[in-house]
Write a structure and sequence with these properties.
single chain, elongated
Length: about 110
């Protein structure tokens, strides 16, 4: 019977243990925090900026336009990696900040 994750001389399921070790990052930790960051910042700014404070709407709109002007926000991610250093925390911040303009646009209407 064939092993589902392969068989090597070192023993069965060696590849499965390597896959499970690699999945420890993707169990929802970093991706969840990136989404939480974008929702916590973007959702309140969208509906509140035009109605609550009149002077805040042009600033939020220009910030949103500035971030949406870069293709795929890869420039932002590279810039943050250069400033903060290459780490998982930097990737979470870059992905979260890159998704903020989309959240603002969706909630602003």
């Amino acid at each position: 019977m064939a092993q589902p994750a392969g068989y090597r001389r070192t023993g069965p399921a060696t590849n499965l243990s390597r896959v499970l070790y690699g999945l420890r990052v993707f169990r929802g930790g970093p991706a969840r925090w990136a989404v939480v960051l974008s929702v916590v910042v973007g959702v309140p700014l969208g509906p509140c900026s035009p109605g609550l404070y009149g002077w805040l709407d042009p600033i939020v709109s220009r910030f949103t336009d500035l971030l949406l002007a870069f293709p795929g926000s890869s420039c932002l991610a590279v810039g943050l990696a250069a400033i903060l250093g290459p780490a998982l925390f930097t990737a979470v911040i870059a992905i979260g900040v890159a998704q903020i303009p989309g959240m603002i646009r969706v909630t602003k209407g």
